[in-house]
Amino acid sequence: MINAATATFFATFFSMATAYRKRGLPAQGVSANSRMGRPCPAKDMDLPAKYPVAVKDYLDRAKEQWDALPQVSVEPSGIIPRISRLAQLAHMRGDAVLQEFQLTRGEAELLFLLTRTGRPMTPSEIAADLLTSAAGTTKRIAKLVDAGLVIRTVNPLDGRGALIDPTPAASVLVHRVLAATAQHEAEMIAHLPEAVRIQLAGHLRALLSGLEAQDGSPG
User: What is the DSSP letter of 38?
Assistant: First the structure.
């Protein structure tokens, strides 16, 4: 699951691609000028002048490597591969923050879910919402039970099932983790102008909601 602040960081490329299409420029992440080593003026892309539009990233360099190989042709969209790369980087940095609270990302997301829903949830509900496997969810629940952060009770509607609820200690911890996470994620996107953040958040929302509708995922 991608949280809102991380999602905001991912969608820069949608606003750039939209600007390219409006101007009839190539939508590959950099303009024809910048591919030649010449900076692309911000006005050509409707972006703030200080935005580093001509800087190559990991995907640009990877494409150059593929293009150098004989009989290999790759023409990536420049969107999904960058989302994957950004997700890896965001998770690596975010995991370092969570380690200070002795939590994994999966455990933190489970506690966030229980806290914001405000009701006990079944393990299957948790797994469906977080897009995790039943086995992985069960393992996380067991660890959080041992840590005193959630309790497992019998489901009155299904004697063989269970309900999972956060403890008061979890509520205190969640607020501390959220504060640290919010500060960390704000620092990750601090280099983006406010106008770009607003644009890219809207574009990523459109992509995510469309994929969730296709897959029937909880939105």
Answer: P
What is d(CA 102, CA 105) in angstroms, rounded to the nearest whole number? 10
Among candidate residues 47, 43, 27, the one with its CA nearest the CA of residue 35: 27
Q: Provide the 10 A C-beta neighbour count for residue 151.
A: 15
CB distance 117 to 66 below 8 Å: no
- Rounded mean pLDDT, 174-186: 94
Distances, alpha carbon 37 to alpha carbons 30, 34, 55, 96, in Å: 10, 5, 10, 36
Instruction: Quote the CA–CA distance of 219 and 212 in Å, as a whole number.
Output: 7
Q: How many Å apart are CA 87 and CA 2, to the nearest integer? A: 8
Residue 211: pLDDT over 80: yes
* DSSP tally for the chain: helices H, then strands E: 10, 2
Three-class DSSP category at 148? coil
pTM, rounded to two decimals: 0.66
pLDDT band at 181 (very low <50, low <70, confident <90, very high): very high
H or E, element range at 150: strand 150-155
Q: What is the mean pLDDT of residues 194-198?
A: 94
As a whole number of angstroms, the distance between CA 151 and CA 142 comes to 9
Give the Å distances, CA to CA, from 94 to 57, 101, 175, 191: 21, 12, 16, 18
In the chain, % of residues over pLDDT 70:
71
DSSP state of 39: P
